[in-house]
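Quick one: structure for this chain?
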Amino acid sequence: MDPFESELRVIAAAEELAATLGANKNHTVAAAAMDTNGVIHRAVNVYHFTGGPCAELVVMGIAATADAGPLITMAAAGDGGRGLISPCG
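Got it. Here's what it folds into:
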């Protein structure tokens, strides 16, 4: 099954953000989520000594702060060219 165009846009957004993470070991995963208005929200994980919130959780918080509509699709991508990865949790 081929992804929808909207899903491809979200995947691309996550992969583009992940490509900017560089060598910062505190930020190793990027996530993007699209709301029902077509707005794509982006975020990264925040690693700390207890593990920290995953990028998917952070992007939900970013979307909520932006008063986004319901989220319809989400993708996560790893740093270092790992590309699309399975969701956290």
